[in-house]
Amino acid sequence: MNMKIKTSHLLAVSLATVILSSCAGKALEAADTPSVIPLPEEIVTGEGSLTLFPDTGIFFSEDVPDMYRPVSALQRLLTSVFGERTELTFCAGDIAADSGEPEIRIPGRNWVTMALDPELPRSGYRIEIAPEGLKILGGDAAGCFYAVETLRQLIPAEAYVGEKVASVTLPALTVTDAPAMDYRGFMMDCARHFFTVEEVKEVIDIMAMHKLNVFHWHLTDDQGWRIESEKYPELVRVGSVRKRTLIGKDPGGTYDENTRYDETPHGGFYTKEQMKEIVDYAADRFITVIPEVEFPGHAVAALASYPYLGCTGEQYEVRQTWDIDDRVFCMGKETTFGFMEDILAEVMEIFPSAYIHIGGDECPDKMWRKCPDCTRRMKEEGLESFRELQGYGVARLGDFVESFGRHLIGWDEILEAGVTPETIVMSWRGTEGGIKAARMGNRVIMCPTEYCYLDYYQFPDTENEPLAWGGLITLEKAYSFDPLSGLDETSSRNVLGVQANIWTEYISTLDGFEYMMLPRVAAISETAWSYGRKDWTGFSSRISRMYPLYDACGYTHAPSSRIEE
Ligand code: TNX
Questions:
Q1: Of 122, 184, 234, 315, which has the highest C-beta tally within 10 A?
Q2: DSSP state, 486?
Q3: Residue 182 annotated as catalytic
Q4: How far is the CA of 21 from the centre of ligand 1 (A)?
Q5: Longest dimension (CA), the chain
Q6: Quick check: is 266 catalytic?
Q7: Which residues 6+ apart lie within 8 Å of 488 measured at CB?
Q8: Three-point CA angle 49, 53, 59, nearest 5°
Q9: From the alpha carbon of 428, which atom of ligand 1 is closest?
């Protein structure tokens, strides 16, 4: 037996046990019918129940790569229920091959056992709750982590607020689960409005609660550049701050003396350390961060910082209004590519993700048409249209990113100019682009505006809602999304998964952001995790059990009463 716990620690453990168990507190009992979002593959109820106490220990099999992540997650979960717990509640050792039980037992302690089961799929897990104990088995460490997130929902929400908990009783049951889709994404726009590291972390927590695993971080746009760069300090000094912010609805370019602005400058950026901190925080929750650097459109903040990056060299201001801007990166001058390659190299050093997002959306060619450098480039390269010029630029950066062993992701506009087979297409203007790309053999992420744009209104009576971009995506509408519709089995395999997006033109606070995210992100997460077993009636009853959990965690969400209307 390979015991990693020392006798002195054992003594400390039992002392801690005595202290903790002598504290009074509420005794909670979970509902008999568990309610979990996203819907697990199978829940089988058993006989009897299990009661967890404040001294619940965590016994985990050692020598499993990354196991410390789900173990820490479980420790955090138990702490949020029972209050501060001693580190000494951990114990690493062998799990007996025959029984699957820890080979040691400390009398008087209840244990959650966490181990791998090679029979389970990647990211899959099984939770076995029985009167004898609680066992978490994962196909890998990620699977164990998702089991912890399910356990969070099996515990009554009252456990996470108020008075200390003395015990939690859970009905005996077995949950068997695995994700249907590998890519379960969420995009946060931190360019239009800046959110602090702590706020971004809370959004990542909400993602983890819903078993999402890719955080697409929109970091640059016309209205702000948020990435600290050693080589290009003006990006932060100039590009990260706008003078003022449009208040109210964007009138579509017809601004006059009646247009209202908040005259307070708005800005912010992330240092390299902060971005790495986010990468690590997300990794602990099995979430990959994919950074997005917009190119060649949505570039005004970059051009304001370094005017030579534009076609005319004019000095611009960081943009203060929304919508599409004509001022984009010059595609003729070599300096543009030098800049983008330097930035991408810095970005790839911070973000270890296999994919790097290059934007590519909404890029007008008005400046290129008048630019001698751009037209010369077209002649030299034999390019017949301005879209081909955009394709040329994206392909160059694609080669650069590939030379680092990474792949490019772009919004579906990049299809118009031709893409390499390695490029991943993010389909946002409907699913047509995604369908076309998947049929071509490219990998695809589906996030059409119609279902996945959570910056759109969620209730039809928009006058009573915080100002939003427009559109209407009710919870039911978001839930009804079928990302594989229109695809045969072969091309369906190219769909990596789905993503919800929140753009922040009209969202300036974390509360406002969470209001748009919750509960609709739960619907998108169920499409990604539970594809093939979705059922709106079941979801609409299960979602009502999420509100107390959101409240207990301090997350703002849309009101449930209006959703049930
Ligand atoms: C379109 S989606 C955009 C964003 C806006 C969003 C508002 C995409 C690739 N581009 O720049 O913020 O609509 O919903």
A1: 184
A2: T
A3: no
A4: 53
A5: 82
A6: no
A7: none
A8: 90
A9: 2
Q: Quote the ligand 1 centre to 455 CA distance (angstroms).
A: 9
Over the stretch 271-285, which tens digit does the pLDDT of each residue have? 999 999 999 999 999
- pLDDT, mean of residues 55-81: 89
Of 407, 409, 369, give the one whose Cα is nearest residue 387: 369
Q: Calculate how far, in angstroms, residue 242's C-alpha sits from the geometric centre of ligand 1.
A: 19
Task: Give 497: exposed, middle or buried? Use CB within 10 Å, 0-12, 13-18, 19+.
Answer: buried
Residue 383 to residue 376: CA distance in whole angstroms: 10
Task: Find out whether 215 and 290 touch, Cβ atoms under 8 Å.
Answer: yes
Residue nearest to atom 10 of ligand 1 (CA): 361
* Residues written for the chain: 565
Q: What is the pLDDT of residue 62?
A: 74
Whose tokens are 């971005």? That residue is 275
pLDDT tens profile 434-464: 999 999 999 999 999 999 999 999 999 999 9
Q: Which ligand 1 atom minimizes the distance to the CA of 298?
A: 11
pLDDT in tens, 292-309: 999 999 999 999 999 999
Phi, psi at residue 268, to the nearest 5°? 150, 155
Helix axes 386-402, 372-381, angle to 10 degrees: 70
Name the β-bridge partners of 91: 59
